[in-house]
Amino acid sequence: MIFKKSALLTCAATLAVVAASGSAWAQDAAPAAAAPESGGLQDIVVTARRTSESLQKTPIAVSALNSSALEKINVQQVDKIAQVVPNLVISQQSSALSASSIMIRGIGQTDPSLGLDTAVGVYLDGVYVARSAGSIFDLVDLERIEVLRGPQGTLFGRNTTGGAIQLVSKKPSDEFGLTVKGGYGTRNNWYGRVRMDTGKIGNSPFSAALTYYHRQKDGYFDNTLTPKSKDPGSLNVDAYNIAVRADLDNVQINYSYDYDNRTGAPGFFQTVALSDAALAYYSRSASLGGAPLQYVGADTRLTSGQQQPGFDNHYTSKTVSQGHNLTASWQASDAFTLKSITGYRKLHLFNVLGLSGQGDLKGVVFDPTSPTFTSVQSVTPYNGYNGPQNQKQFSEELQALGKVGDFSYVVGLYYFREKVSEDNHQFLTAVLPGSTFGLPLDYVGLNLNPEAKYHQTSKSYAAFGQVSWRPQALDEKLEVTGGIRYTKDKKFLRLENSTYGVPNVSNTSGGVSFDNVSFLGSVSYQVTPQALTYAKVSTGYKSGGFNPRADGICNAPAPDGTCPTGVGYHLNTFKPEKLTSFEIGAKTDFFDRHLRINVAAFYSKYSDLQVPQFASGSGGATTLLVNAGKADFKGVELEVTAIPVRGLTLSGSLGYTDPKYKQFLFLDPATNMVTDIASSARFPAVAKFNSNVAAEYDFEPMSFGQLSARVSYAYRSHVYFYPNDAVNPFQKQVASPATNNVDARIALSDMPVGNRAKAEIAVLGENLLNEDQVVYGIDFGGLGFGGKFYSEPRRFMVEFKLTY
Question: Which of 85, 298, 565, 791 has the fewest CB atoms within 10 Å of its CB?
Answer without folding.
Answer: 565
